[in-house]
From TrEMBL:
Record's protein name: DUF3108 domain-containing protein
Protein keywords: Signal
Signal peptide start-end: 1-21
Superkingdom: Bacteria
Tagged with keyword Signal: yes
Length: 269
């Protein structure tokens, strides 16, 4: 029985891997064991207040018996701002080792609302099939599923993928388009390159960064969701994030990083 089970797992891995290959991408930016930490700041009545922390980790794990990257992102506001706005978000994704999406989950406690989004990816017959689940703030659940001939991503998987983009030759305004999924839909989205900028992190270092804007189509217009300032080297580590939220705006600044795959060549001395 053990041998039969092993053959079944091997067959599943082979079939899933072959089908997902169309949505794969080479990873040049990170390896298992990377950990990034950030300070969070909120804009409250035109004043920036230090109000929490965020962290992101990436490790090699397994998903349905196959090797996969497991990436998680947590944001935690502190007690200073809980009276004004509660922010407790946890994002999780599994991708194949060549970055095809497998699973995504976002649990969001924002203000008085708590929602959960999930996306389950499979790749039958060369298509990208997604099952999407949302737990609404009133506790009800909704499910839907769709098949697409093109690839579809979530916020975490596109972030992992984008870190391995090669920006050589990019000019200001260069745009990468892709569809994004959450718990109940598919939305056109894009990354826009805005040039380079030197950014000071909360580790007291300055880094030469690429400035990228993540936008989503909303009511016929592209709405800016977050600006990323990522190191201008092969790691493409986010040094600063500017987040445009429903309640206002927030920023995150890099505090520490360890387990990087490549040398940090973007440090400005």
């Amino acid at each position: 029985m053990k041998q039969i089970r092993s053959w079944a797992i091997a067959l599943l891995v082979m079939l899933t891997g072959n089908a997902a290959a169309q949505c794969s991408f080479r990873n040049t930016a990170f390896s298992s064991g990377e950990f990034l930490s950030y300070n969070l700041y909120y804009n409250w009545k035109f004043v920036w207040v230090k109000a929490g922390f965020a962290s992101m980790s990436t490790v090699q794990s397994r998903y349905n018996g196959m090797p996969a990257y497991r990436a998680s992102l947590t944001t935690r506001g502190n007690n200073k701002v809980d009276d004004f706005f509660i922010l407790r978000d946890t994002l999780l994704c599994y991708n194949t080792l060549d970055l095809a999406p497998l699973y995504y989950r976002k649990g969001a406690h924002e203000g008085s609302r708590y929602t959960v989004d999930e996306v389950f990816y499979t790749y039958p017959n060369g298509n990208c099939h997604v099952r999407q689940h949302r737990q609404h703030s009133n506790g009800t659940h909704s499910w839907e599923q769709h098949s697409y001939t093109d690839c579809i991503y979530d916020m975490m998987s596109i972030f992992l993928r984008a870190r391995s983009f090669n920006p050589e030759g990019w000019k200001k305004g260069n745009t990468v388009n892709f569809p994004i999924a959450d718990g109940n839909g598919r939305t056109p989205a894009c990354l826009v390159y805005n040039g380079k900028k030197v950014v000071k992190a909360d580790d007291n270092n300055k880094y030469r960064c690429l400035h990228l804007s993540y936008t989503e189509l909303d009511d016929g217009k592209y709405k800016r969701i977050v600006d990323f300032y990522v190191t201008d080297d092969n790691n493409h580590v986010p040094v600063r994030l500017d987040m445009f939220l429903k309640f206002g705006s927030a920023k995150a600044f890099l505090v520490g990083m360890k387990g990087l795959r490549n040398p940090v060549k973007s440090l400005v001395k």
